[in-house]
Reactive intermediate/imine deaminase
Amino acid sequence: MTYGIHTSHAPQANGPYSQGAAAGRYVYVSGQIGIDPATDALVSDTVDMQLDQAITNIEAVLAEVKLTLEDVVKTTVFLTDLEDLPIVDMIWKTRFSSPRPARSCVEVRRLRDGARIEVECVACR
């Protein structure tokens, strides 16, 4: 059985998709950028603060189905500049405990709302 996940504690979907979807034991969280759901604006123009907020948004979506970052098994990171990867790694180590989830990191030309980073993930119950 598949169902959408919705929370007011993360930015609302900016199109015809769910913030997350559950399918069996797996939960798929749509890409999150550093938008503060209280202001509906980017928290900062810095990649570290945007990443921290994006991960907080992921936590909010996961919490709706009683999961945490410890349940995340795979992430995909989209960066507008791969030179920011050392900053990403530094923040990653503080937000994800060991064993950390598998991760792919891709440089993209542009992200929504001028964001510098976006993160999507898969969690397992």
Summary: DSSP finds two helices and eight strands in the chain. The chain has a mean pLDDT of 97.
